[in-house]
Amino acid sequence: MDTEQIKSAGPDYVRGGKQKALYSLAETVEWPCPLCGSSEAELIKTERGVLKVVECKSCDLIRVNPRLESPESVYQGDQALYEAEFREIILGKRPHHRDKNYLQDIAVLERLKPTGNFLDIGTSTGAFLRHARGRGWNLTGVEPSPSLGGLARKWWGLEIKQGFVEKLDLPSAHYDIVTMTDVFEHIVNPREVLATVRRVLKPDGIVFIKVPNGLFNVMKYRMRHMLGKAESDDFDAYEHVVHYSEQTLDAMIRAAGLKPLEIVVETPVQPPMWHKYVGQYFQHQSPFFMDWKTYSAREVLYQAARLEKALTRHVGYLAPNIGCIATCAS
């Protein structure tokens, strides 16, 4: 696709995935709260036509209901377009826009478990797991998308098992580390997946989960609405089916027989802004000036969230992302 074709592609700029601007009810399914099972919920907002973001009246978990019947199909996209998104990174010319976040998380894991068997769930193209190579771990990735998992093998030489982790024949009590980085919010059966994690984790193993903070998204949407700004995908409801807070993430992890050790404020992700100028999404960093207001606002909120956590010992509305280290419950 040449530059003029990209520019004329409309508001849905070119990306490797299959996301659409609008969805119909025929593409969705109703589902109860995956934490407590209740169907009673309060509407927060609607995105992309029919995808409703709701808060459970029983346990406060935020989910999308109705949600896409198969949200993972968004990532069954065109492999050539994915390669175009990653081209500069593959060639070693530019860092991935999340590399700062990934390296900070890897440093935490290396401090806690410097050696052993490492399982990454939802590896995608391997952008995160590639940073764990050459350290003290035996690496295995799990990825349902054949195109994304294939690229992780092709680009970085990673061992990838294709499929959903709960359906794979993985050894019990085998892994020292299990990670889900920017993955858990996509999962429609979180309790089943965590039960699998509990089974394959060694008794002294650790689990690392990083997710967007649902309360931050609520605040962002309400501020935008109050200021009369245009509608936006505050919740990315077409792909993010559950939106966790510190409270609901803790509850979900405990329900699976795992024990959260710490829930922390994660550094903000700064998405690249190339698509605003050329009509195509690229995964490498864009210059600060392209989106300096949003970039600065995220950084200010991150520092405020760290202060809030230090003073109250809780993660509130200000943190864009939250991370959790957990282990097997005794």
Structural description of this entry:
There is one protein chain. The strands form 3 sheets. The protein has a 7-stranded mixed sheet with strand order 8-7-6-9-10-13-12, with helices on both faces. The chain has a 4-stranded antiparallel sheet with strand order 2-3-4-11. It has a two-stranded antiparallel ribbon with strand order 1-5. The protein is an alpha/beta fold and 330 residues long. It has helices at 3-7, 79-90, 99-112, 146-156, 190-200, 214-226, 246-255, 275-278, 292-312, and strands at residues 28-29, 41-47, 51-56, 62-64, 67-68, 115-121, 136-143, 160-162, 175-181, 201-212, 242-243, 258-266, 321-328. The protein has one domain (85-328): Rossmann fold (3-Layer(aba) Sandwich). The chain is built from 9 helices and 13 strands. Helices cover 31% and strands 23% of the residues. The chain is globular, with a radius of gyration of 19 Å.
Strand content: 15-25%
Helix/sheet category: alpha/beta
CATH superfamily: Vaccinia Virus protein VP39
Helical fraction equals: 25-40%
CATH top level is: Alpha Beta
- Uncertain stretches of 5 or more adjacent residues: 1-11
Secondary structure: number of strands:
13
The major pleated sheet works out as: 7 strands, mixed
Q: What name does the CATH topology carry?
A: Rossmann fold
- The 3D shape can be described as globular
